[in-house]
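note to self: dont lose this again. the chain is below, predicted strucutre after it. 176 aa total, dont forget to put it in the shared folder this time
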Amino acid sequence: MNAAPGIRRLHSLTDAQVEELARVLIDCVEGGASVGFLLPLTPQRALEFWQRVARAVADGRRAIFIAEEQGRILGTVQLVLDMAENQPHRGEISKMLVRTEARRRGVGEALLRAAEAAARAAGRTLLVLDTATPDAARLYERLGWERSGDIPDYALYPDGSPCTTTFYYRRLAGAS
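---
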């Protein structure tokens, strides 16, 4: 088993990183991940998504983490920090993406732990996320996330078929 790649928080995204993240997104969607996009996901739509994310990262509304190996992005996760006025204690995990070839190597776990640590450092005491059932359920539950419930037919898989979505939360100890 290979070691998990290096994890790094980006405070801005270069054009090259946006392009590579677009390729990661396309790989995940083509692999069947329900992450907000339907097939076919064109490179242009994927680039536009990551350009919006890049603006949110630059504005401090989102934190983004990447997993890299030999200069190549294998995965990413976002921490949404821009919450409603009555939710300053909360953050949201979004777009956990790991290239199909890099799965089962600890990439998702390392990304999630980095996002949780950043949430603690930002004073967040509660995190939430949702995932297509059973996508990544084993990972989240193994890392201490609490399942709050399932909603059938909440979203669609990339092929257009309906999927159940599971919602999770995690209280963060030691938030500063």
